[in-house]
Design a protein that fits this description.
The chain has 245 residues and is of the alpha/beta class. Helices cover 42% and strands 11% of the residues. It has helices at 19-22, 35-65, 88-104, 124-140, 154-175, 201-211, and strands at residues 116-120, 144-147, 179-185, 217-223, 238-242. It has a five-stranded parallel β-sheet with strand order 2-3-4-1-5. Strand 3, helix 6 (201-211) and strand 4 form a beta-alpha-beta unit. The radius of gyration is 35 Å and the shape is globular.
Length: 245
Amino acid sequence: MKIQRISFGSYSNNQNLSPINSGENREFLFYPKKKEEANFKPLVLKFLGSLAAIAVGVTLYNLRRNKVPLSVVDIQDKAKGLNAINFRRTALELKKKILYPIKTETTNKHGTFNSGLILSDTKDQPLKEVLAAFSEHAEALGIRTKEIPDNLNKSDRRKWVFNAIKEAENNYKETKQFTIINIGNLDNLVDLKIVKSKNSAIEDKLIEINKNVYSGIVWTAWTNNTKSIPMYYNNLPVLVTKLVD
């Protein structure tokens, strides 16, 4: 008996073959790699590449965020400025929340800039001393400061504040240099009440400064009328803080 060779035909790359139509001859046939398998490695590489890019981005962000250390608001002389006061926690708070943003022109996580400061305590003298030390510290850092004279009556004090604000605004427009204006005892300028139906002209001016993140002005004041500080300051970028050791 003569046995004839059986041919299963030739294979072409253009043929669409599947286990269903290949029948018994599947061991002789070559099947193209499934599309999902062919795309698996590129997807993995893309994923790993994305992770690497994210890691680099996070690193650069952290470097940028920590680019300027807090030491930028330190001064060497231990007998001057905030170095000389006994209220260490208050000194650190003023450095971090007022002086540091001025030196770096940065806002906090809410996009605000503390453009006002009210120190509160039961006694006058420590408040005066701390604000004076704060102004001295700012000057040592090269920040412009203006301090209201003690020998002015209420009318002249208000006039001085308006003039100081106008001068500081003009200076900022010309030089982009900040000015800290110490307006002293807040009770000598405004009628402090927790809730008020109407503000005075000077209060409206202070609020206007606080609503403008980069007005170029930070005003500072003190009060021992701790229970009468207006509530609207809670909604403004004004740091209201007590003296803390």
